[in-house]
Amino acid sequence: MQEFLRNIPPIHELQNHKKVRQIQSDFNVNKDQLTSFLQQETQNVRKDILSGLWEPAKESEIEKEILSRVYKNVKDWITPNLKRVINATGTILHTNLGRARLSHEAMKRVVEVASHYSNLEYNIEQGKRGSRHDIVEDLIKELTGAEAAMVVNNNAAAVYIILRAFANDQNVIVSRGELVEIGGSFRVSSIMEESGAGLVEVGTTNKTHLYDYKNAIDDETAMLMKVHTSNFKILGFTESVDRRSLVKLTQETDKLYYEDLGSGAFYPFQDEGIGEEPVVRKILNEGADLVSFSGDKLLGGPQAGIIAGKKAYIEQLKQHQLARVLRVDKMTLAALEGTFKQYVKREENQIPVIRDLRKSLVEIQEQAQKFIEHVGELKHFKLRVTDAEAQVGGGTMPEVKIPSAGVAITEESVSAEKIEQKLRQHEPSVVTRYHNEQLFFDFRTLTEEEQSELVYIIKSIDQQL
After folding, report:
1. Which one of 75, 103, 257, 335 is CB 3.0 to 4.6 Å from 250, fit for a cystine?
2. Which HAMAP family does the UniProt entry name for this protein (predicted)?
3. 304 φ/ψ sector (left φ>0, alpha ψ -120 to 50, else beta)
4. Separation between Cα atoms, residue 14 and residue 71, nearest integer Å
5. Nearest of 439, 436, 457 to residue 371 by alpha carbon
């Protein structure tokens, strides 16, 4: 062992090794960074020899092992942690894969604003300080019919600031059937507790009546809150109170009516038989004082929490101390503006979420068939077009199954798990799913560019087997 330790090369010798110079050239790392990697891996090899974790067969293997480890670590270090992924799962709003893809218009706005200075908080006409709230407020008002609006960093934050501002040390009445838990074990009840608001549950899990709300209202009541159950659906013997009745009740009792939509939509998906997601404008037209919803779900924009409603309430929220804590940055606002303007210009089908939801089954089947033709003959894989069902995802429209199609892939000598692993570990990573116990690419979530890439990826993996 001591002989092996004595043969660990010094750092200055490794620095001059031709493979180290090649690493420096390939990955464009400076000398100090590379020296740090050399020192780290030399020390690790020494520890592994001493502990018996690694034993070289001969002395010459020590230098080779150090250089191999340095190469791998430099490559890993230079590779971004947040990477592009090809989503072949058919889940349009895949929470683990970043939810909504931005439109080209939104991306263009982000790049332009990120690359230059901007009037984020500067009023160009008046030549003085402005407000970032103004950047997208008029667009939200136009799209929703609201008197005023503001943006925070996500919908959970929107719920929190509304409860904190208007119900701190007071009570909020919510139906038991609407006390939802969203992704990551975040519960409406927990957010309410953190805000300082008291939760008053009414009704039962499956049935809540108007008299339940009436009987619960007292001097300590600040608001009635309705939570849209976008991530689950109760079926069977159920009953809930409609929005108009709750609005009327709050007007009669001088309480605030707030609706947390979770997803929220500007596009009328219901008109095309896709789910039952309410349009934000309709909710405000029916008298809601405040509504909040996400920017990166059915709207198809970046992560954000959008609050719209009566001007008096929105102005209070803008002046609240939490408004600064929860505010969004210039790139989020740029992406929101680009997305909202496409709605205003009736260019919704250029927003990926809406485009993918509305894509016809025939179109998807044709794309899958053309893909197989472009791939051509393979040594190992067998491909065939298969019909399936896609889903919206992102905690939205849980009951909606969308007819879809794609390509099933089989290979008798290699397990589906092994092929899935190779696809997942490819650059870019390809995330698939299983359908009828076969590895499956759902083409509803694949762009034409990604389909072309996938042709090359499939051929490449087939040749490696």
Report:
1. 257
2. SelA
3. beta
4. 13
5. 457
92 three-state secondary structure: strand
**Neighbouring residues of 310: CB distance < 8 A, sequence distance ≥ 6:** 146, 147, 148, 289, 290
| Whole-angstrom distance, CA of residue 344 vs CA of residue 215 | 43
The predicted-structure confidence for 48-102, as pLDDT tens digits, reads as follows 999 988 888 887 889 999 999 999 999 999 999 999 999 999 999 999 999 999 9
CA distance 350 to 36: 47
Report how far residue 229's alpha carbon sits from residue 195's, in angstroms, rounded to the nearest whole number.
Answer: 21
CA 401 to chain centre: 20
Dist. CA 251–CA 141, nearest whole Å? 23
> CB–CB of 118/355 below 8 Å?
no
β-bridge pairing 171-175 and 290-294: unpaired
**Comparing C-alpha atoms, which of 244, 164, 171, 163 is closest to residue 202?**
171
Longest dimension (CA), the chain: 89
User: Please, which residues have CB within 8 angstroms of residue 249's CB and are 6 or more apart in sequence?
Assistant: 210, 213, 214, 217, 224, 255
- Which domains, ranges and CATH numbers included, belong to the chain? 2-77 (no CATH), 85-94+355-464 (3.90.1150.180), 104-349 (3.40.640.10)
How far, CA to CA in Å, does 19 sit from each of 9, 13, 63?
14, 12, 11
- Residue pair 421/464 in contact (Cβ under 8 Å)? The answer is no
How far is the C-alpha of 266 from the C-alpha of 404, rounded, in Å?
24
Pairing of strands 382-393, 305-309: unpaired
The answer to whether 286 touches 145, Cβ cutoff 8 Å, is: no
CB distance 302 to 120 below 8 Å: no
The two structure tokens encoding residue 80: 């971004």
Mean predicted lDDT score pLDDT of the chain: 93
Helix axes of 155-167 and 188-195: crossing angle, nearest 10 degrees: 40
Which of 4, 75, 64 has the alpha carbon at shortest distance from 34?
A: 75
**Residue 254 burial class via C-beta count within 10 angstroms: exposed 0-12, middle 13-18, buried 19 and up:** exposed
Which tens digits make up the pLDDT trace of 359-392?
999 999 999 999 999 999 999 999 999 999 999 9
Pairing of strands 396-410, 290-294: unpaired
